[in-house]
Amino acid sequence: MKVIIIEDEKPSARRLKRMLDKINIQTETMLHSVEESVSWFQENEHPDLIFLDIQLSDGLSFEIFDLVDVKSSIIFTTAYDEYALQAFKLNSVDYLLKPIDAEEMERAIKKFTVNHKINQPVTLNFDDIKKLLVDPIKSEEKEYKKRFSIRVGQHLKLISTDEVECIYSENKGTYLYTNDGRNYLLDVTLEQLEDQLQPELFFRVNRTFYVNINGIKDMISYTNSRLQIKLHTYNEQDVIVARERVKDFKMWLE
């Protein structure tokens, strides 16, 4: 079985490769962008199976299929669930949310191999799509994180979510930035926080940033139909709403 990985975050790509190695599936190559992938597909025999991230460094991976007639089956790997319907329209085996669980990955591969042997098309089940698109637990019924417990030297400091201006990842670390201008290192990833943060309060504007709605001071039109956010105290780097998130971001503000 010929397998390739398309993932712009090289540590994530290497982690996925190690997971595949453990179950004796060798990865033929790893690609990291839309442009690189299109070029590779035009010059190489298409693999049996692709592990495909959705948000790549130069755009959404769906753009690959606009330029190349890819015949391979696909297992999507992503931190976002809002692209499930688009994935359903392609030759998708499964849709794995990051951080990828080894057992879920193996089940997806088994689904592919069983159907591949009997020459049946391998696609996502519509019930799976509905589970991804419809949260059975309403926001008002679910308990979200109200405070963070931060280790500061030998002490533990409690920080209310109301004090948090933004949360971001940088140099493999995840940081919490408070509205009094202090930074604290967290021991979780942004992906792990996704189900813990109150959606009315926090929004993930791009791959590396969550912002608190109360921390927003100004919003400015930016290049390529994006938005730049100015926060009340955080100014260490530009906070940009990714182009594909702008529509959802504006809805979130309403």
Write up what this structure looks like:
There is one protein chain. With 254 residues, the protein is an alpha/beta fold. It folds into 2 domains: 131 residues, Response regulator (Rossmann fold), CATH 3.40.50.2300; 113 residues, OB fold (Dihydrolipoamide Acetyltransferase, E2P) (Beta Barrel). The protein contains 8 helices and 17 strands. A 5-stranded parallel β-sheet has the order 2-1-3-6-7, with helices on both faces. The protein has a 5-stranded antiparallel β-sheet with strand order 12-11-10-14-13, with no helix packed on it. It has a 3-stranded antiparallel β-sheet with strand order 15-16-17, with no helix packed on it. The radius of gyration is 20 Å and the shape is globular.
In whole angstroms, the N-to-C terminal distance is 48 Å
Q: Which ranges are low-confidence, i.e. pLDDT below 50, for 5 or more consecutive residues?
A: 121-127, 132-140
Order of helices and strands: EHEHEEEHEHEHHEEEEEHEEEEEH
> Total number of helical segments?
8
Described by strand count, sense and barrel closure, the largest sheet is: 5 strands, parallel
